[in-house]
Specification:
Aspartate Aminotransferase, domain 1, 15 helices, Aspartate Aminotransferase, domain 2
Length: about 375
């Protein structure tokens, strides 16, 4: 059988199992309403939580940077790719999180994979939450350290694994998301931090979905809990409305990452325009108390409204609402029906979530209006045979 035929069979298998994905094409800017196939629809599935992806002040900072810095960084950070804009952005984000240093990456995936691989390796040991993001999982695997997966959000299981395996490794690292992107629940960081300290392990917390939304001035779950992790990963492609990511930590830790993270050392630096736009976005995020309140109010309204309709919406206090459906095909059928009614809600299927837990993942934006949130609830109410 030829190679191309094997590829076609693999695609057929995905289709038969309800797992074939085809991205929809968005026209124009990202916002609470987007245009798909010429039709405006409410967008309830992006990570543009504060609605900053089309913010005029951030766009103006990017435009000004084009004139000042040019378009590209031209090389990796350790060649000629470190520019004033990168250093200024790193200083701003380090200050935001109370860290002494930060390193800017091209994406959250690159930051997680590169950071973990830079800090631990053969002879070391890593302890990872069972529902961590794929980029954290891949970073653990690529490090070639010994990996132990603890039960989701279970300090008890983490403590048991630390007691059994901590002594085997040289360095030890506990890795967790702060806000889990498919369930909308937070990690018990106070207990996890206590255990990491007790067993002389570093603590890496990925605040991707929490920064900008939760905690004082949007500084995340760790800040809200009074926890200071050894490393915080933050992405710019969610609440900040951009792309890229950073890791904030001590000066020695960041220096080691800059020297050993392969996704940092061997990648062209992010465009300086992105770095200067990130600084502008950070200024907006710091002061976005009213948008944060609006966002969480929208989420609470949706959660209550969908539960009243009989949908299975787990407890949560974040901006991420999973509506559990179960079967892949039914999940995607409901997603298509909602889109027909002008509400864009994406279906989430394995391997992103566990088999049998396919769901509709709703994420409102601070910039949605209350009447738009009511439209979403009404669209769910009119679904054909939703359960």
């Amino acid at each position: 059988m030829g190679f191309e035929r094997q590829i076609e069979e693999a695609l057929s298998e995905l289709k038969a199992s309800g797992l074939l994905r085809k991205p929809l094409r968005i026209s124009g800017p990202q916002g609470p309403e987007v245009v798909i196939d010429g039709k405006p629809v409410l967008c309830l599935c992006s990570n543009n939580y504060l609605g900053l992806a089309n913010h005029p002040a951030i766009a103006a900072a990017a435009e000004a940077s084009l004139r000042l810095d040019g378009v590209g960084a031209a090389a990796s950070r350790l060649i000629t790719g470190t520019m004033d804009a990168h250093r200024e952005a790193e200083g701003a984000f380090a200050d935001f999180l109370g860290a002494s240093a930060a390193a800017l990456f091209s994406s959250g995936y690159a930051a997680n994979v590169g950071t973990i691989q830079a800090l631990v390796g053969p002879g070391d040991v890593v302890f990872s939450d069972a529902l961590n993001h794929a980029s954290l999982i891949d970073g653990c695997r690529l490090s070639r350290a010994e990996i132990h997966v603890y039960a989701h959000r279970s300090p008890g299981d983490l403590e048991s694994l630390l007691a059994q395996h901590r002594a085997k490794g040289g360095r030890a690292l506990v890795v967790t998301d702060s806000l889990f992107s498919m369930d909308g629940v937070t990690a018990p960081l106070v207990e996890i931090a206590r255990l990491a300290h007790a067993f002389d392990a570093g603590l890496l917390v990925d605040e991707a979905h929490a920064l900008g939304v939760l905690g004082p001035n949007g500084r995340g779950v760790a800040a809200a809990a009074g926890v200071k992790p050894d490393l915080v990963i933050g992405t710019l492609g969610k609440s900040f409305g951009l792309a890229g990511a950073f890791v904030a930590a001590s000066e020695p830790t960041v220096a080691l990452i800059r020297n050993r993270a392969r996704s940092f050392v061997y990648s062209t630096a992010p465009p300086p325009m992105l770095a200067r736009a990130a600084i502008a976005a950070l200024g907006v995020v710091r002061d976005a108390e009213d948008p944060r309140r609006s966002l969480l109010t929208h989420a609470a309204t949706l959660r209550a409204g969908l539960r009243d309709l009989g949908f299975d919406v787990p407890d949560g206090e974040s901006q991420i609402l999973p509506v559990l459906i179960g079967e892949n095909d039914r999940t995607m059928r409901l997603s298509a029906e909602l889109l027909d009614q002008g509400v864009f809600v994406q279906g989430i299927r394995p391997p992103t979530v566990a088999q049998g837990t396919a769901r509709l993942r709703l994420t409102p934006m601070a910039t949605h209006r209350p009447e738009q949130i009511d439209r979403v609830i009404n669209a769910f109410a009119s679904l054909r045979n939703p359960r």
